[in-house]
Amino acid sequence: MHIDTITLADMLPKVFVGEEIPHSEVWLTECTFHRGKHYLIEAPSGGGKSSLMAYIYGARRDFEGRLLFNGDSVSGFPIDRWQQLRRTNIAYLPQELDLFPELSCIENIRLKNDLTGHIPESRIDEWLERLGIAFRRDYPAGKMSIGQQQRLAIIRALCMPFDFILLDEPVSHLDAANNLIAAEIISEEAVRQGAGVISTSVGNPLLLHSAVNLKL
User: Fold this and answer.
1) pTM, whole model, 2 decimals?
2) For residue 41, which of 201, 206, 211, 208 has the smallest C-alpha distance?
3) When you count CB atoms within 10 A of the terminal residue's CB, does the N or C end of the chain come out lower?
């Protein structure tokens, strides 16, 4: 079953309750993300971008208001349903990347892809080439630069079926050329799956075409 819409209804991180909140197009309103569309959420540091991504992924629940998938509140979802959603519906790239530093670039990617069997090795090799890290294929991830690690993590995040992919500041350490290549690869895979893209930024946004811009 696909997730076609993700709706935030009067949502607000509990840590912000009682504070004066600047005008937001996401918090304390009704905001719906549609499968197949691209969204860019911009906010200053501390605005709740990472919290929002974690709420949608089900990794955190410290918010007020309602979060709905296809109109159904997630508040009653059992853990096994969340596990299924994370395997087949929602891909997630956290700001911290969560790579295994002792494993090589390709081993980090295969950890995900061997579980899902979703992406052929030839496409992974193509992505490594396009993103300029093919020469780091067998290099320990922990010894790669942060920009190289971001490109590796983007590839790994794409190695599963998804209705939405959540990308928390995915290109903060990339130059414009690699940002554009990363955006092209993400967009191509999203189109192939008919999926939505939700990306956050504090100043170096993923260069998605036709993205809906929202201020947090």
Assistant:
1) 0.96
2) 201
3) N
Q: Which candidate, 59, 64, 82, places its Cα nearest to that of 28?
A: 64
Residue 210: which pLDDT band, with cuts at 50, 70 and 90? confident
Strand pairing category for 72-73 and 63-69: antiparallel
Helix, strand, coil in percent for the chain, rounding step 5: 40, 25, 40
Question: Are β-strands 164-168 and 72-73 bridged in parallel, bridged antiparallel, or unpaired?
Answer: unpaired
User: Count of CB atoms within 10 A of residue 151's CB?
Assistant: 27
User: Buried (b) or exposed (e) across 175-190, using 16+ Cβ within 10 A?
Assistant: eeebbbbbbebbbebb
* Alpha-carbon span 48 to 115, nearest angstrom: 31
Tell me which residue has tokens 């959540």. Answer: 166
Q: Closest Cα partner for 172 from 194, 151, 144? A: 151
User: How many residues does the structure list for the chain?
Assistant: 216
Question: Residue 92 is encoded by which pair of tokens?
Answer: 């997630």
Give whole-number Cα distances, 53 to 130, 145, 205, in Å.
Answer: 27, 24, 15
pLDDT tens-digit map of 127-173 = 999 999 999 999 999 999 999 999 999 999 999 999 999 999 999 99
